[in-house]
Each structure stands twice: as C-alpha cells, then as structure tokens.
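The protein record minuted underneath.
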Amino acid sequence: MNIKKKIQLQKGFTLIELAVVLVVVGILLSSFIGTLTSRIEATRRSETIDELNEIKQAMVAYSFVNGYLPCPDCVVAGAGCIAGTQADGVADYNVGLGRCSENEGAGNVPWVTLGIGRSDAWGTRYRYAVQNEYADQNSPFTLGSIAGSAKIEEPDFVADATGATPHDLATSVVAIIFSHGKNGYEGTSDNNEAREPAPAANIDEKNNTNDDQIYYMRPETSTEANIAGGEFDDLLIWIS
C-alpha cells in the first residue's frame, strides 16, 4: 500500500503585510504616548496651580499672625543678602532695616518659613516678590492702608507685534507668587542650579524676572521661544 503524505504549505506574512502591521502599530503607539504625555502635563499644571493657591493661603495666614508678609528667600548672595543664607528657604531680611533683602525683587518662596513645598511639578523652585511696605517687620500693615505698586498685565500682540501695548489684569498688587512652568526659563532647579535662560527676544518670560514690578500673564503657548509673543507657560497668582 502506498501511503501518500500530504505536505501542507503554510503561507506566512509577506513583507508588505508586515510593513503595514508595523505602521499601524506605530501609529497607535504614538497616539497613545502623545495622549499620555498630554495628560501628564495637564496633571502637573493642575497640581502646580493648586500648590500656588496653597502658598497664597499660607502667606495670608502668616500675615494675620505676624502683621506683615514674609520676605523672599534670596536666590544668590550679594547686596543685602548675606552669604550662606541664600536658597535655604528662610525669608531674608536686611538686618537693621527689617525689610526684605531682595528689595522688592523676586526670590524663592520661603518654604521653610512657611512650612510648604518649595518646587513646582517640574522641579523648579517657586518664585515670589513682595512690596516692602507689606513685609516690614517694624511697621505692620493694615488692609488697604498702603496702595500696592505692582501690577499684572497681558501683552497685546494683536494691537502691537512686540506686545508693548498691554492690558491691565490686576493693579495695586502687593505680592506675586509664580511658577516658571514646564520650560523653567529663568528659574532655579530644586538642586539650586540655574535653569536655561529665556531667549533674548522672548520678552514675556524675561519680564517676570526683571524686578520691574510689572508681571505678565497670558495664554500658554509652546512654540517659537525666540520671538516676542512666542513660548510662554508661567503660572501666576497674586495678593491685591
């Protein structure tokens, strides 16, 4: 008896079919990663905004107890900031004057003095500036007794391509607390290392660290970091 063996040939995937499968998997994977990244960043932004509000509440409570707001923690030594006391989380005062060593300039949020967190969700220290009259240890303030000198503005890049024509969002501001956002431009890391400076033409990001008592707040953008009206992601909160 002759036994005929049937040889069954199994057909595999062709190169074209494999390529199509890989492309589809790549598209699905990139879509998933993109969505996950967006959700992570949205969560970080939300957490940072919540922390900014907590810092503001802590500062208001501090002022009720002491009669004045805390001073910023110096970022670097120099001027009225004593060497060895910078970036330690303790509010820095000009000895003898009872006023802030930063002289209304922005320093770190004094996290040790307030007993709060020191850095945002991206690992950059929170910044803080306060009007001297509201942080004077020798002369406690009463609400409304002194007009705030700082203000919050939104640059107008529709009316003026350079953003030099701003709209006032808040005036008579006495204290500003802010995060440098995801890009961290002009900030200081949690390890006390300087973050990357904002490009020279990015006047919005630079404006929030030039200590001129005018702070910018506008919708977030993530492109064209090297032009006016380009990348911006600072998050601000203030006390009026």
User: Anything to note?
Assistant: The chain has one domain: 16-239.
